[in-house]
Specification:
Blueprint (H helix, E strand, L loop, with lengths): L1 E5 L8 E5 L12 E10 L1 H8 L13 E2 L3 E6 L11 E5 L2 H4 L9 E4 L5 E2 L6 H4 L3 H14 L6 E5 L4 H12 L3 E6 L4 H7 L3 E4 L3 H11 L4 E6 L11 E9 L13 E4 L6 H12 L7 E6 L3 H8 L7 E5 L1
Parallel strand pairs: 9-10, 9-12, 10-11, 12-13, 13-14, 15-16
Antiparallel strand pairs: 1-2, 1-4, 3-5, 3-7, 3-16, 5-6, 6-8
Helix pairs in contact: 4-5
Bound molecules: NADP nicotinamide-adenine-dinucleotide phosphate.
């Protein structure tokens, strides 16, 4: 089968097409095979490829295959899902550390990662959803803010941030987004009540406080801004970061959390039904063939690009 391998740590040029033997039915107990149609390119993929996470990935060394988000068709039955069923999910790549990610024609997955994919959601659209939407949902669950609370979402233009804005607004929170300037209208459509342009932290803070002088009840730090954003929070407020190394030290009785997205098939099933019903909006920035994974990484690293880049397989 065709895969894209990381051949060494470095820039996008280290990604290279290769052939590997296709997994066989039952060759790894507890795993089932999915023939992929689409895989998302995540920020973690870029960082793993660059060597930034070399210490976090233990003994795994190139060549290995990146990729977390996926959508495709089951090759083996999985619980109630028959062979041939359309499915989507994400592979917890850092927990598995098999180096057999989703930049591949066939992957082995745990049935507990799989959600059925509604007929009217394209594979490429589906591949933009799982990790980001589940992480947003699990981050908001850690905040556990009561209805009517004010939530600041940084990186609101980002893939995770957009889901956080929508899910928080649907839960009755008053959302203030920090975003790329041109995305203000779109974020308001998604449910943000107020949008502040990204930029110098002091200016962002001043803009937030001009809108919410009493300060906010919670922060969902999708841009990994960390400590400077704490000043936007009330005493005793709640903060969730998407990265342990960017999680600030607690102060003023603020609760500080880090979220690591974990597969949740039931939650993802509901999310994909909401995507099918257009109650949750996802955005795909580009769809590119698997063979162009290196170019996909270049684009992903080239600055503001709202939405997931998806590889079509
Ligand atoms: N913990 C987990 O399980 C988990 C899961 C998924 C993602 N993540 C991490 O969460 C982060 C967001 O992921 P994503 O997929 O949403 O990435 P993304 O689509 O690239 O979004 C990141 C957003 O942050 C914004 N940003 C970056 N620097 C900023 C700054 N200094 N001030 C204000 N905004 C800034 C970017 O703005 P522009 O668009 O203007 O560049 C972008 O909108 C990544 O670091 C990713 O690795 C963690």
């Amino acid at each position: 089968m065709r895969v894209v391998e990381v051949t060494a740590y470095g820039g996008p040029e280290v990604l290279s097409m290769a052939r590997r033997p296709e997994p066989e039915a039952g060759d790894v107990p507890g795993k089932v095979r999915v023939r992929l149609k689409a895989a998302g390119v995540t920020v973690a993929d870029l960082r793993i490829r660059s060597g930034m996470y070399v210490d976090a990935i233990g003994g795994l060394r190139p060549p290995f295959v990146l990729g977390t988000d996926f959508a495709g068709r089951l090759l083996d039955p999985a619980g109630d899902l028959p062979a041939g069923a359309r499915v989507a999910g994400f592979m917890p790549w850092f927990d598995e550390l098999t180096g057999e990610g989703t930049y591949a024609e066939v992957v082995r997955v745990d049935p507990a990662w799989l959600a059925p994919l509604p007929e009217d959601v394209d594979f490429t659209v589906a591949a933009s959803v799982p990790l980001a939407a589940i992480t947003a949902r699990q981050g908001l669950a850690k905040l556990a803010l009561p209805e009517g609370s004010t939530l600041l979402v940084t990186g609101a233009s980002g893939v995770v941030g957009r889901f956080a804005v929508q899910l928080a607004a649907a839960a009755g929170l008053r959302v203030v987004g920090v975003s790329y300037e041109g995305d203000e209208h779109e974020l308001k459509v998604l449910g943000a009540q107020h949008v502040v342009p990204r930029g110098d932290p002091a200016k962002v803070l001043a803009d937030v406080l001009a809108y919410a002088p009493e300060r906010v009840d919670g922060v969902f730090d999708g841009a990994l801004l960390g400590t400077p954003v704490l000043a936007a929070l009330k005493d005793g407020g709640r903060f969730v970061s998407l990265a342990a190394d960017r999680t600030p030290t607690a102060e003023r009785d603020i609760e500080v959390h880090t979220v690591v997205g974990r597969p949740d098939a039931a939650a993802l099933t509901g999310i994909l039904e909401q995507v099918a019903a257009r109650e949750l909006i996802t955005r795909v920035a580009d769809v590119m063939p698997l063979e162009e994974a290196a170019e996909a990484h270049r684009r992903a690293e080239s600055g503001h690009r709202p939405g997931r880049i998806v590889l079509m397989i």
